[in-house]
Write a structure and sequence with these properties.
alpha+beta; D-Amino Acid Oxidase, Chain A, domain 2; Glutaredoxin; 11 helices; 29% helix
Length: 492
């Protein structure tokens, strides 16, 4: 029988990140997955700056960067002609150590997280699924069925559903997954394509009522291609690759040679979210809690953010560092962002795929011009980067936030990135636990209700000057949460 304080169901990116966070804080847990190993498919591609910052805390950001691809621009090809070429470059400027759009296949993200877990003695129990679940006062009991048919009982205090859109935990707990399904059929394919243009970034091809999006991948001449399936396809799960090949050739309308593919699939786009991310001592994270269109490359990153937010709080409770009430803040902080994300990606998706004449004219002629103009203005570039990179996420309305502020910084905000000669602000946040930054003559400070690890750092000299320019008090204390969000700002 499995007895564990925390049972994670699902070892995709979200479940693996949650396991990595729990290992970081030494919290015992078990993680299982129906698959027989980490995915071999690329699936999600975009890795946003906030995710790389979270990888940095785990010490795996450099490994990720060594395997991926920085997208420098986006080209709009309309009816075979390049209508606009928009430069991204380091669009985030000095906002993050990762101020660009980064591409790394989901399979490689999973492998990096799995390696982190394995290096700390962790192990995913593959080919395992939950087939029975009962709730009781102390948590949950149930049955796990192995790939060879064996069944094993389990008992846990906390149950975490990270099993994706078809989450067994969500189904077994009968948690409604409200939203809509788009009737149009779409496809995703990883193709080898030889194009008569340098592989630098994204390519959006628009032709009449059709569109294709090409995302560069790490392999030579390898692209992730997303688009609407031609009307001749009725079953998104049963159609030959030749149909896609012909369709891509017609819509792209520029010299290109498709030399092969590694996989392809049809699908429908859903926009759904649960009413609450918590049900008793059960929690949902990632696609188990919210699904939406791939517009903006937010899906995998949002699940990873869920895991980071929940991970340190679960560890705090299981390790006896904080009262169980802290777990309420997970739903308070992550669901509002999920609601906003589902709404905005739905709106963007509608513009991209709508067959109406107005929408077609907008995306064909106006959108390239609007984006070209917007990205010439630094304030708009910064806003766009903050939004897409998820560095703009704030928890100001959380019960963990006291409303304190200093300049433009508020408690609940992401801790800002800044540098000075010989150092940077994120180096302060590499250890696990809370961080107390003391400026000027300020002394140390205890964290209310917290008995876990605390790092006390006296900030002076060039570091203090850089912090003041970033909005921190010259004299005072700044308390930073384990997930790199500001907990408290005290001036004077």
């Amino acid at each position: 029988m499995i007895k564990t304080p925390i049972l994670i169901i699902g070892a995709g990116p979200t479940g693996l990140m949650l396991s990595a966070q729990l290992h970081r804080y030494g919290a015992p847990h078990v993680i299982v997955d129906l698959k027989d190993g980490i995915t071999e498919l690329s699936k999600a591609l975009g890795v946003q700056a906030r995710t790389l910052e979270q990888y940095r805390q785990l010490g795996i950001a450099d490994a990720a960067l060594s395997e991926g691809f920085i997208a420098r621009n986006v080209r709009f090809v309309v009816k075979g002609r390049t209508r606009a070429q928009i430069q991204f470059g380091e669009i985030g400027g000095d906002l993050s150590p990762y101020p660009y759009l980064f591409i790394l296949e989901q399979s490689r993200n999973e492998a990096l997280l799995h390696d982190y877990i394995s290096a700390r003695g962790g192990k995913v129990q593959w080919s395992s699924e939950v087939v029975d679940l009962k709730k009781h006062d102390a948590g949950y009991t149930g049955t796990i069925r192995r790939g060879d048919g064996r069944e094993e009982a389990f008992e846990c205090r906390y149950l975490i559903g990270c099993g994706g859109a078809h989450s067994a935990v969500r189904h077994l707990l009968e948690m409604p997954f409200k939203g809509e399904t788009n009737e149009q059929l779409f496809f995703v394919a990883d193709m080898n394509i030889e194009l008569e243009m340098e592989k630098q970034g994204l390519l959006l091809a628009i032709n009449k009522k059709e569109f294709l999006a090409f995302f560069p991948m790490s392999g030579e001449n390898q692209y992730r291609v997303i688009g609407i399936l031609p009307p001749t396809v009725e079953d998104p799960h049963d159609f030959p690759f030749e149909v896609l090949k012909t369709h891509v050739d017609e819509v792209l309308d520029i010299p290109a040679q498709i030399t092969g593919h590694s996989w392809y699939s049809g699908y429908r786009v859903h926009h759904r979210i649960v009413d609450t991310f918590r049900n008793g001592n059960a929690f949902l994270a990632g696609d188990a809690a919210h699904i939406h269109s791939p517009a903006g490359g937010q899906g995998m990153n949002t699940g990873l953010g869920d895991a980071v937010n929940l991970g340190w709080k679960l560890a705090a409770v299981v390790n006896g560092w904080y009262d169980e009430k802290i777990l309420d803040s997970y739903n308070e902080e992550r669901r509002p962002f999920g609601v906003q994300l589902v709404r905005t990606t739905d709106q963007a998706f509608t513009v991209i795929v709508s067959p109406s004449t107005t929408a077609r004219l907008f995306r064909t002629y106006l959108l390239p011009v609007i984006l070209s103009v917007m990205l010439k203005f630094e304030p708009l570039r910064r806003f766009m980067f903050k939004t897409i990179s998820q560095t703009r996420i704030t928890y100001r309305g959380s019960s963990l936030t006291d409303g304190s502020r200093s300049g433009t910084l508020h408690s609940g905000d992401r801790f800002p990135w800044f540098e000075w000669e010989g150092g940077n602000s994120f180096d302060w946040l590499s250890d696990s636990g809370y961080v107390v930054l003391r400026f000027g003559e300020a002394g140390g400070m205890e964290i209310p209700d917290w008995s876990g690890p605390v790092v006390q750092i006296a900030v002076a000299g060039a570091a203090a000057d850089a912090a003041e320019r970033a909005g921190f008090p010259r004299n005072g204390v700044v308390i930073v949460r384990p997930d790199m969000h500001i907990a408290k700002l005290i001036a004077g």
